[in-house]
């Protein structure tokens, strides 16, 4: 069903140029319209077909990058030339335009759903950094930037920093010099 839905989409979408598609089952289908750019692609997985059907704007680049869409006898530039040539064509009728807008409106909540577990994985993937990165520009105890000049030792920079008075760790007062809790500063030391 996914293949037939994407097949129907491509039959309507390609009105300029020629695009040959080798499907995951090994069959090849050619979509062509008026003379224009030509390209061929191989879809290596059914998942790529599904993603292209649901969100072609995003999935084309993702499928190329993960290797599930591979240009065949052409480059990705040729594939993009065929796609872009057909994107500039106005919809054939107001009905087609309305269907596209309605499908986008219906699909948006599903596409933007972000459960707590998925959000956690996204944050971990993009923002969890290991200590090696910080060791490139911070000193050993990670309190000050490493010196740019090798002539200036790291410790001299720390000596120039003003001494801050801190209250006992049990106090919840705020140090005006750094605007952070002194208990947090004492706990970090």
Strand order of the largest sheet: 2-1-3-4
Q: Major sheet, described briefly?
A: 4 strands, mixed
Tell me the strand percentage band.
15-25%
- How many individual helices? 9
Explain what the structure shows:
The chain has 189 residues and is of the alpha+beta class. The protein has a domain at 2-111. The chain has 9 helices and 6 strands; from the N terminus they run αβββααβαααααββα. It has helices at 2-13, 46-54, 56-66, 76-87, 94-111, 116-127, 131-137, 154-160, 182-188; strands at residues 16-22, 28-32, 34-43, 69-71, 174-175, 180-181. β1 (16-22) and β2 form a beta hairpin. α2 (46-54) runs antiparallel to α3.
Summarize the structure.
With 189 residues, the protein is an alpha+beta fold. The protein has helices spanning 2-13, 46-54, 56-66, 76-87, 94-111, 116-127, 131-137, 154-160, 182-188; strands spanning 16-22, 28-32, 34-43, 69-71, 174-175, 180-181. The protein has a domain at 2-111.
Structural key phrases:
elongated, alpha+beta
Describe the secondary structure blueprint for this structure.
Blueprint lengths: L1 H12 L2 E7 L5 E5 L1 E10 L2 H9 L1 H11 L2 E3 L4 H12 L6 H18 L4 H12 L3 H7 L16 H7 L13 E2 L4 E2 H7 L1
Parallel strand pairs: 1-3
Antiparallel strand pairs: 1-2, 3-4, 5-6
Helix pairs in contact: 1-2, 2-3
